[in-house]
Amino acid sequence: MSKVLVISTSLRAKSNSDILTHRLIGGAKEAGHEVEHISLKGKKINFCIGCLACQETQKCVLNDDANIIAEKVKAADTLVFATPIYYYEMCGQMKTLLDRMNPLFPSDYRFRNVYMLSVAAEDEESTPKKAENGLLGWVDCFDKAILKGTLFCGGINDPGEADLKTRKLEEAYEFGKSLQ
Predict the structure, then answer these.
(1) pLDDT tens per residue across span 69-90
(2) How far, in whole angstroms, is CA 51 from its chain's centroid?
(3) What is the pLDDT of residues 107-121, one digit of tens each?
(4) Is the dihedral of CA 164, 170, 176, 180 positive or negative?
(5) From CA 171, how far away is CA 18, in angstroms rounded?
(6) How far is CA 29 from CA 26, 104, 152, 156, in A?
(7) pTM given for the model
(8) Cα separation, 179 vs 28, whole angstroms
(9) Residue 133, Cβ neighbours under 10 Å: how many?
């Protein structure tokens, strides 16, 4: 089975995306995957300064937690990004992390399949589309990778509310089982 890296990008206490991520991880483990989970809570991730030195060295000149995460992303077979939807887009810390993964572009990265779990108070079909498109833009820069699947869990707002959403918890678990 695959080496799966799950990155939770919410910084909120009792995060609904974290609750659903843990269910996703349970499903992925049941399917036989080796799973590592990284939360961005407490991580220091600076903004990319656009120097492009990383295109030559495959290392970022900024010294923070993004470098450690980039090495784990590079070594994973499958990536899962979990994000709350803010203003119909991925959260800012997820976008900042994606920008900082620029050293991977010229590298011999391993990941092929990329997935997204998103959570929002809004429950319209269109709610996650801009976030999914943003991740797709990142994935499209990696010729060997594909955005393989997404799961949107809408209608969840208050901290910890996801614990009460039995159907959404089951969807996240099944999504985890379906990872490749």
Answers:
(1) 999 999 999 999 999 999 999 9
(2) 25
(3) 999 999 999 999 999
(4) negative
(5) 14
(6) 5, 26, 21, 25
(7) 0.97
(8) 7
(9) 12
CA distance 110 to 174: 24
Looking from the CA of 73 toward its CB, the CA atoms found within 13 Å total: 24
- Amino acid of residue 130: K
Residue 17 in tokens: 């995306």
Which residue range is the domain that position 89 belongs to? Answer: 3-177
Instruction: Say which CATH number the domain at 78 has.
Output: 3.40.50.360
Residues across the chain: 180
Total structural domains in the chain? Answer: 1
Q: Distance between CA 120 and CA 88 in Å, rounded?
A: 9
The backbone torsions φ and ψ at residue 131, rounded to the nearest 5 degrees and listed phi first, read -65, -45
